[in-house]
Design goal:
The protein is α+β, with helices and mostly antiparallel strands. The chain has helices at 6-12, 23-43, 47-62, 66-89, 93-105, 113-118, 129-142, 144-149, 173-181, 184-188, 193-207, 222-232, 238-251, 308-316, 337-348, 408-411; strands at residues 166-167, 256-262, 274-281, 286-290, 298-299, 322-323, 328-329, 333-334, 351-355, 357-358, 370-376, 388-393, 398-405. The model is unreliable at 9-20 (pLDDT under 50).
């Protein structure tokens, strides 16, 4: 059984208001006054109290607008799943299946095949034909490692025209100001480039908490975002953390990209992705997997650091992967190879996307600017065309272009 509420409480309880009137304010009031009791009912396996609070929560959730619902979507899905677990453990099969089906249909849907296939809390349901049918359907959507293994082929002859990858030089005035303003030379230290890369990742992870429930500030350069976080006592989502770290690397003369790691999502219901950094080590002559959200990097059996491409290939071919032992979320939750790599990242390594130009302030809306991204698609993907997609945003007068390729070699060119 998952713990759906601890993170929910931590992220919201400190910001709640009272005497609310709007649907969002009523939800905040619920978090402030009842979420801890809800958590306790889960821990005590108090099915009756949990069900009562879940009913109240769902009524509040259904009253939210579509945008606000996204903030609570993960909690909604997990809360229904936990209710199914509580009923299953009590051997109330009819109620357990009712909430398991609600789990799958709640919001964007639940399709965590690995948990459903192995969770001991629902063992009382496993021999039921209804469960076997659910599990078979879930495998097609949520067996993430199996889906990734089917996506092992690229086309290295794909020569569709793409913009070149570029990296802003460290003598850029903004990057120079960033380097001096944050004292990055001291933070990076005087060791090898690999040690500097790791030191900067550790620093960003510690100085700004991850907050996946909220967006990032409108101005998306490192100095501005760090200032806003300090002033407002807030964090950044995974993209914001990767953007900050990316500029720190560029300011130190280290080539780096942000990489959006995306699921297959054949039903177009998975709103989740993860953004990390791909950082080039001159001493090792290779790209390295660097994840500031989870303070994570990945090694092979020899202790050699791996790139995103190497981790993906090793997951597909069942080769040894070692996650750094201090990988964690917000210095609170330790990460394991099984959850982080074999489940979460196996889902999100299906396809990859990078900005063509890695530079200061690269994702802040700028009047009239065109933003180019390159997406690497496996041949297994169901939407190969068009070769590029344009999104013209009238409000900001910007154009966002996604160029597609099946050529992994071109995508990882320096």
């Amino acid at each position: 059984m998952k713990n759906p509420l601890a993170l929910f409480i931590a992220l919201f309880i400190g910001n709640c208001l009272f005497a609310q009137t709007t649907p969002s304010e009523k939800m905040e009031d619920f978090v402030a006054n009842k979420a801890e009791n809800w958590q306790a009912s889960y821990e005590n396996k108090d099915t009756k109290t949990y069900a009562t609070l879940l009913k109240e929560y769902v009524a509040l959730y259904n009253g939210l607008d579509s945008i606000s619902k996204q903030d609570y979507l993960g909690t909604t899905i997990s809360a229904h799943y936990t209710m199914a677990c509580l009923y299953a453990m009590a051997n109330n099969k009819k109620e357990a299946f009712e909430f398991l089906n609600k789990t799958i249909t709640a919001g964007s849907g639940y399709y965590d095949y690995k948990t459903l296939a192995t969770d001991p809390d629902i063992d009382n349901l496993r021999n039921e034909p209804e469960f076997q049918k659910l599990l078979a359907n879930m495998k097609e959507l949520g067996d993430y490692l199996s889906l990734l293994k089917k996506a092992n082929k690229y086309n290295l002859s794909d020569n569709r025209p793409l913009p070149a990858f570029t990296y802003q030089q460290s003598d850029n005035a903004n990057l120079t100001a960033l380097r001096k303003g944050l004292n990055l030379d001291s933070i990076a230290g005087q060791g090898s480039d690999v040690l500097q890369i790791l030191n900067l990742m550790h620093w960003v992870h510690d100085v700004v908490p991850h907050d996946g429930m909220n967006g990032n500030p409108e101005v998306k350069n490192a100095l501005s975002m760090l200032e806003v976080c300090k002033k407002d006592g807030r964090g950044l989502n995974c993209r914001g953390l990767a953007l900050v770290l990316n500029e720190c690397y560029l300011s130190m003369g280290i080539k780096s990209r942000i990489v959006t790691c995306l699921p297959k999502d054949s039903l177009k219901i998975d709103q989740d992705c993860h953004v990390i950094n791909s950082v080039y080590s001159e001493s090792l002559k290779k790209w390295l997997w660097i994840d500031p959200t989870f303070e994570a990097y990945v090694m092979n059996e020899k202790g050699e650091m791996l790139s995103i491409a190497e981790v993906r290939e090793r997951l597909i071919n069942d080769k040894t992967l070692i996650l750094n032992p201090d990988a964690n979320w917000n210095n609170q939750s330790a990460q394991t190879k099984e959850d982080y790599l074999e489940s979460y990242m196996a889902k999100n390594l299906y396809m990859l996307e990078c900005p063509a130009s890695s530079e200061y302030n690269m994702e802040t809306n700028s009047e009239g600017k065109t933003y180019n991204y390159i997406r690497l698609l496996p041949l297994d993907y169901f939407e190969q065309k068009p070769d590029k997609e344009e999104d013209k945003r009238e409000k900001s007068n910007t154009t966002w272009i996604t160029h597609k390729t099946n050529n992994a070699n071109v995508f990882w060119e320096l």
